[in-house]
Amino acid sequence: MLFKVEMKVNLPTDMPAEVAAEIKAREKAYAQGLQEKGKWRHLWRVAGSYANVSIFDVEDNAELQDLISNLPLFPYMDITVAPLCRHPSSIHEDDR
Ligand SMILES: O=C(O)C[C@H]1C=CC(=O)O1
């Protein structure tokens, strides 16, 4: 199942820089691991903001919830999720 996930990061302004850097490093490793597994299919920066638009490819809603809630930045993000389905005009056979 494909989901569009939008994440906006809101780190507290008083968070020490080294704490923020450590969380971001863990987030990067986690995100890259999920990309290597094919679970996090697309990861795009929204230009001009500390936000991303992502496409997740998961078995079900429960797996999406599990993956997202384990993001190291999860406590500091506003997240919106939308389910996706194949567009009838798509030429990409793997869009399902
Ligand atoms: O930078 C972000 O958009 C937040 C988050 C998503 C992946 C990652 O490495 O950090």
Please sum up the structure shown.
The protein is an alpha+beta fold. It is 30% helix and 30% strand.
Number of helices: 2
- Low-confidence sequence ranges: none
- The appropriate CATH architecture is 2-Layer Sandwich
CATH superfamily: Dimeric alpha+beta barrel
* Proportion of helical residues: 25-40%
CATH C-level class is Alpha Beta
Instruction: List all distinct small molecules, including ions and cofactors, that are bound in this structure.
Output: [(2S)-5-oxo-2,5-dihydrofuran-2-yl]acetic acid
What is the chains' assembly state?
single chain
**CATH structural fold name:** Alpha-Beta Plaits
EC number: 5.3.3.4
Enzyme class: isomerase
Keywords: Aromatic hydrocarbons catabolism, Isomerase
GO molecular function: muconolactone delta-isomerase activity
Question: What do you see in this structure?
Answer:
This protein is of the alpha+beta class and 96 residues long. The chain has a single domain (2-83), classed as Dimeric alpha+beta barrel (Alpha-Beta Plaits, 2-Layer Sandwich). Helices cover 30% and strands 30% of the residues. It has helices at 17-36, 61-69, and strands at 2-9, 40-45, 51-57, 77-84. A four-stranded antiparallel β-sheet has the order 2-3-1-4. A hairpin with a 5-residue loop joins strand 2 and strand 3 (51-57). It is elongated, with a radius of gyration of 14 Å. The chain starts with a strand and ends in a 12-residue tail after the last strand. The model has no long low-confidence stretch (mean pLDDT 96). Residues 7, 9, 27-28, 31, 43, 52, 73 line the site of [(2S)-5-oxo-2,5-dihydrofuran-2-yl]acetic acid. This is Muconolactone Delta-isomerase. Residues 1-89 form the Muconolactone isomerase domain. Homodecamer.
